[in-house]
Amino acid sequence: MDYQPKPQFEESALRERCTADCSRCPTFPAPFRRIGDASYCRFTRIEFDAGEGVRFPSDGKVYVLFVLSGSLMLEQPEQPARLVTSKQCVCLERDAVCQVTAQDGGTCVVVLSLLHHMEFCEQDIFGEGPLPGTAIPAVQMPVLTLHPVVEQLLSSFFLVHGMADCERYHKMKTAELFMLIKVLYTPTEQACFFQSMILPQDNFRVFVSNNHERARSVAELAAMAGMSLSAFKRRFAACFNDSVYHWMMEQKAHRILADIRDGEGSTKALMQKYGFRYYTQFSRFCKNYLRATPAQLIARVRERQGGTAGEL
């Protein structure tokens, strides 16, 4: 299929100039009205025929696409295309142009556009990241399977037209959606799914966990964070209670050990993968961080897999 340029995505229009006095709203008392008061969020339902689509701009917003039926092909400049099918959702990369094209007739998508903070009871619900040391897979446009409870929430959102036009209703439903996400998905799934919308100033720990494997040096990681090297080191020490270099070397050691446990038995392959030119250098690294030489580590794994004593 020849993908032609698509019209730019346009959000549904709300009553931005509503004159109602929400402070005395009999339907939604004050605790509910507080949800999302400092945030921007909006749901839009779109139906496509095959070949139709839209272009999402680079405008600082986060776009989360929930595919209720059909399928979408997602395309970004200099990135491989990604297919998102029915009952899946995808978080588009923040500040990046993305074109989506329906692959099937009757494709139905609910788009949530929001600023990257979603507040609930005056706290950012993204504030709590995964546990320290949790490995977060680096995925360009991460996809989650749509939970039936989330699908039910999205499917019923537009049934009452008068409510679908209310700005506060959008904010309440967004808060409800993310509360469900926090309950129905693991912290690692949440961190992976929303990694493209997390910047250093949002959650430093999650940013480091998401990006340290892409950086070849501490200076490169600091540059990715948009910080000076000295400022990055200070922030890192305060957050991790460790030096950046030591922490990154420990993460490399953990990945080496994981590869060996997964069956990699070639020291040459490990050296090439992790940038060691000489075996003596590699062996010294493993002894310093894993308390054994590469050959000893491989032998222990083989012994354990063979049913004999030996443990890493």
Automatic annotation (TrEMBL):
<dbReference type="InterPro" id="IPR050959">
    <property type="entry name" value="MarA-like"/>
</dbReference>
<keyword id="KW-0238">DNA-binding</keyword>
<dbReference type="InterPro" id="IPR018060">
    <property type="entry name" value="HTH_AraC"/>
</dbReference>
<protein>
    <recommendedName>
        <fullName>HTH araC/xylS-type domain-containing protein</fullName>
    </recommendedName>
</protein>
<dbReference type="Pfam" id="PF12833">
    <property type="entry name" value="HTH_18"/>
</dbReference>
<dbReference type="GO" id="GO:0043565">
    <property type="term" value="F:sequence-specific DNA binding"/>
</dbReference>
<dbReference type="GO" id="GO:0003700">
    <property type="term" value="F:DNA-binding transcription factor activity"/>
</dbReference>
<feature type="domain" description="HTH araC/xylS-type">
    <location>
        <begin position="202"/>
        <end position="300"/>
    </location>
</feature>
